[in-house]
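Work Package 4 report. The design task specified in the project plan requires that, given a folded chain encoded as structure tokens, an amino acid be chosen for each position. We show below one input record used in the internal validation round.
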């Protein structure tokens, strides 16, 4: 209330802050903006039906590790690092970003499965990369897993086609 009184008192002393200035300050032009938005809006469908679940596309592709993964990864490590590969190739450090990128890009192109950005910091040695590519990935989403699971009788998931 004190702020409003102070504004009104200032409006009496300054002609630029009269009632139109106060209306503009406190949102008097909002009605005009709403009218402009409403004029340009697309009319909604009047006969809306209940919301339905539309099956989303799978978020990720499935990945099954190949049988010769270890030999494939070892050959790529030896190609990228050259003669500087230690005797135990799994202990080869991935500290140089250029070499790390080159190795991971080759593996992603060959295996069709890339290391996500959120896990790049975990790839410190070639053994970490081997551990990542050893784990299989299912292609379905959590909703697909729920739909395939045995659910209680009062819960059903039906996808709209």
């Amino acid at each position: 209330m004190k702020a409003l009184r102070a504004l009104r008192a200032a409006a009496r002393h300054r002609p630029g802050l009269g009632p139109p200035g106060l209306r503009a300050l406190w949102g008097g032009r909002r009605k005009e903006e709403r009218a402009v938005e409403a004029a340009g809006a697309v009319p909604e469908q009047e006969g809306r039906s209940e919301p339905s679940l539309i099956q989303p596309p799978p978020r990720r592709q499935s990945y099954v590790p190949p049988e010769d993964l270890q030999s494939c990864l070892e050959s790529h490590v030896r190609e990228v690092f050259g003669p500087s590969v230690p005797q135990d190739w799994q202990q080869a450090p991935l500290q140089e970003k250029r070499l790390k990128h080159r190795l991971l890009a080759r593996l992603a192109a060959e295996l069709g499965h890339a290391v996500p950005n959120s896990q790049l910091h975990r790839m410190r040695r070639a053994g970490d990369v081997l551990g990542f590519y050893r784990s299989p990935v299912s292609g379905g989403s959590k909703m697909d897993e729920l739909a395939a699971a045995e659910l209680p009788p009062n819960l059903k998931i039906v996808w709209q086609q």
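Helices lie at 2-13, 19-25, 30-40, 69-81, 97-111, 126-134, 142-148. Validation will be extended to a larger panel in the next phase.
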